Amino acid sequence: MLSAMRSNQARKDKARGSFQALPVEAMRARPLRLSVPRSLSRSAQREAETVSAARRLNRAAGMLAASVLADSALEHYRGSFKNKAMFTPLVVAGLTLAMSLHGTADRRPVAHRARDASYLSAAVTGLIGTGFHIYNVTKKVGGLSWQNVFYGAPLGAPMAILLSGMLGFCSERVRANGRRRSRRIFKLPAAETVATVSALGLLGTSGEAGLLHFRGAFHNPFMAVPVTLPPIGAGLLAGAVLNGGRRMRGLARWWMRLLALMGFAGVGFHAYGVSRNMGGWRNWSQNILNGPPLPAPPSFAGLAMAGLAALELIREARDA
Amino acid sequence: MSDDPLHSPRAINGRAPDVFRPGRWVSMKQYAEHEAVDFVIVGTGAGGATLACKLAEYGFTVVALDAGPYFRPLEDFASDESEQTKLYWTDDRIVDGDNPLQLGSNNSGKAVGGSTVHFAMVSLRFRPEWFKARTKLGYGADWPIDWREMWAYYTEVEQALKVSGPVNYPWGPPRPRYPYRAHPLNAAARALARGCEALGIGWTETPLATLSAPRGLAHPCVYRGFCVTGCSTNAKQSALVTWIPRALSAGAEIRDLAMVGRIETDANGLAVGVHYNRQNQWRFQKARNVVVAGYAIETPRLLLNSATDKFPDGLANRSGLVGKNLMAQANQAVWGEMDEEVRSYKGPPSLAITEHWNYEDEGKDFFGGYAYMSQGPLPQLWANTQATAHGLWGTRLVEAMKRYNHVVGLKIVGEMLPQESNRVTLADEVDQYGLRIPRVTYSWCDNDKRLIDHSVAFMSRALGAIGAKDLWVQEDDTCHLNGTARMGDRPDNSVVNADCRSWDIPNLWICDGSVFPTVGGANPSLTIQAIACRTADRIRGLSRVGEIRLN
Ligand SMILES: Cc1cc2nc3c(=O)[nH]c(=O)nc-3n(C[C@H](O)[C@H](O)[C@H](O)COP(=O)(O)OP(=O)(O)OC[C@H]3O[C@@H](n4cnc5c(N)ncnc54)[C@H](O)[C@@H]3O)c2cc1C
Ligand code: SF4
């Protein structure tokens, strides 16, 4: 009886969780979560939740990878692929995206070797890429100056693929918990770890948006949005980790949805930015390269999705 | 009716071209010629357009006349150097002296918007000490304005033009952050930077009046480098796309293709209006105040051409200084070739600058200062330079042009000292309107030559230090003209006071580069516009206490 009540409660929570989840991606997740039969034992239930959590993270990693794939394709095409290494992020992000799709479809409660390998290589690529970009900036005349951080290789960009790799890797670790009661990533508590990675990712990405929007002199007031909302989101995630009350988590969940929405709306704003260049969209082949990067803002959506997954993990760890 | 802006006026019938929308118009207030307006302004360049805008915004009635056409940059400007000579003032003039000036492309424009339509957008503040050059630095003359006051007006202009500049400017007292960020450097600018670093002096991104991000309907810069032949994207924040649209919406009237030939004065010695030629007809506009803003040659020419029995030496000329103290700025260059491609013409021509020798006084054997900037000559100009200044012809010229993509150059804007013998007078010949044409006499003094020698030697070292080969010096070039109606604190040593008001005729004002007592080693347009903003504020202040003729 008690267990039936619990699972009922869990179901309600889940239903609420998925209802409030992300517009596109998370909606797809809903039927899969509801398909957990009521009659399952608690450990089976737990396993199903674990897999869902892992799949949410796969999805977040995939979203980030998609953003990196499109963004680096555009930027490195603009840089004429002067250095062969400039193909790397395309290959790695493409692979990460494919693996994330695979992970999202996979319901087995075990980590997957190929996914693990590809997530790890994404993380390593991110690190090496950051090194390359720092080298590119510092070797320019003027060194680490505003001119070079504005217009040299963007220091923050390779971090996105690092984040994607890290989230994917966390996803595999979460999945490997199977029926275990407290989910861990190595020795760390899964929920808090993912929340921390997401929060740091939000801060870093917001920092990069801030830098590039400062380069654009914040000429449009909306350019302030991605430098104000995400740090608040990071704060709320931290709050959820530290305090963990339902209200704080609820607020954080809403905020993550807002950030995801912002990530997608950002594409629209950037499209408007493209139109303000000489020739507008009629001259798309030049202005897409010239104007604000269309694929960049959805990386916020990826991180917000990771934040949502983290909040769900926190809820399951603390309320269940 | 034909839409050739060079032959038929566009600002008529209550409307003026909308410079931001092809084929569209904006409405324009019109004033009757027989009713006196508060201000009639001659010339709509850096000085005239700024003043017209500010005065109209302060509620005065304003008519601004320009001899040049009213261009629509999005439609009228071709990526073709020959076609774009239509921007220059190429009416007849006579030049003489030991170093006769080359007039035309490098120093004067004829259009609504004046020379700013084809200027290079470099927007520099003066070094504060220059406003007291005589007292503090021992040469030239003092300005009657305090630098701190100018600092505030510079800020106003930088905001109005959304100047793109470095986050921190390395020289001079602190200034507010530039409204837009600096542009990316091209290879020519990086060459300047490397040369400066090799010689241990500072450099920075040049503050430029061209957009690094969108602004309203104006597009950001596309880095095609056609700036000095007219920017066809409206990224360049010329007076034509900044002050003029503001002036129109504040109720000013602009009259294009309107050449003013004479300022009329009455028996009391006051100005009463201007005679101007539009569509081959002489007309008269009545005004309570007349402002002359025609650039350092046309301003004194008009004042001299307006002589009467009461003012036999020309208007505002009791001091005898009208036309005197003409100052060009030295514009020498050192050119060389790099092994790698530079493609210096990509982007605005002067993306990087060093003002080191404007602010450093140690180690100089001359008064004054100079800045030098990276260069990006367009092909036709470059071929001309190679043929004339470098003396190449035939196969050698062809070979040199093949290496155009490897050319790198540094060019100064150098201070020349005011000398009364450098001057604008009237020749006996007349122009197409029957007006006596100006004679422009110019000779360098020893100080000018020493400054030039210093700069050429220094820039040669800078280019040598980065591995440029086949260096050669372009020795005879000047730009930006100023002086000829200097401001001062006494009627006997100047033509106008600090408010740009003439000492002799209280309702006659001069508001352009002519009023500079000294020129410094910085491009002048920002200072001209700052002075115009100040003048507008002073006029408003004076009118409030009844010290200006408004009825
Ligand atoms: C190629 C070039 C590059 C330059 N680059 C820079 C730069 O990078 N930075 C900088 O600060 N400065 C630059 N300058 C200089 C700058 O453009 C001028 O100093 C400034 O525009 C002068 O302002 P002004 O008001 O004195 O005259 P102008 O801007 O020349 O305006 C004078 C106007 O008056 C009109 N006019 C004259 N006489 C009459 C008359 N009798 N009747 C009717 N209209 C008349 C003319 O047609 C003209 O439009 C450049 C100039 C040139 C030519
Ligand atoms: S380089 Fe920029 S400022 Fe110059 S003409 Fe082109 S768009 Fe205009």
Explain this structure:
The complex is a heterodimer of chains A (320) and B (551). Residues 1-35 of chain A have low confidence and may be disordered. Chain A has helices at 2-19, 25-34, 42-78, 88-105, 113-139, 146-151, 157-175, 190-215, 225-242, 246-275, 284-290, 298-319; strands at 184-185, 188-189. In chain A, 74% of the residues lie in helices and 1% in strands. Chain B is α/β, with parallel strands linked by helices. Chain B has a single domain, classed as FAD/NAD(P)-binding domain (3-Layer(bba) Sandwich), CATH 3.50.50.60. Helices cover 23% and strands 20% of the residues of chain B. In chain B, strands 3, 4, 9, 10, 11, 12 and 22 form a seven-stranded mixed beta sheet that branches. The longest helix of chain B is centred in the C-terminal third of the chain and has 20 residues, at 446-465. In chain B, 58% of the residues are buried. The mean pLDDT of chain B is 96. Residues 42-48, 65-68, 106-111, 114-116, 118-122, 228, 259-260, 293-295, 298, 302, 480, 512-513, 523-526, 528 of chain B line the site of flavin-adenine dinucleotide.
Structure in a nutshell:
The complex is a heterodimer of chains A (320) and B (551). Chain A is an all-alpha fold.
Total number of strands of chain A: 2
State the helicity of chain A in percent bands: over 70%
Order of helices and strands of chain A: HHHHHHHEEHHHHH
Low-confidence stretches of chain B: none
Whole-number tally of structural domains of chain A? 1
- CATH homologous superfamily caption of chain B: FAD/NAD(P)-binding domain
Query: What assembly state would you assign to the polypeptide chains in this entry?
Result: heterodimer
The value of Rg of chain B in angstroms is 22 Å
- The mean pLDDT of chain B is 96
- N-to-C CA distance of chain B: 38 Å
**Termini gap of chain A:** 16 Å
**Distinct small molecules bound, one entry per kind:** flavin-adenine dinucleotide, iron/sulfur cluster
Instruction: List low-confidence stretches of chain A.
Output: 1-35
Shape verdict of chain A: globular
Main interface: chain pair and counts = A-B, 18 and 24 residues
Q: Outline of chain B, from the CA principal axes? A: globular
By secondary-structure content and strand pairing, the structural class of chain A works out as mainly alpha
* Average predicted confidence as pLDDT of chain A: 87
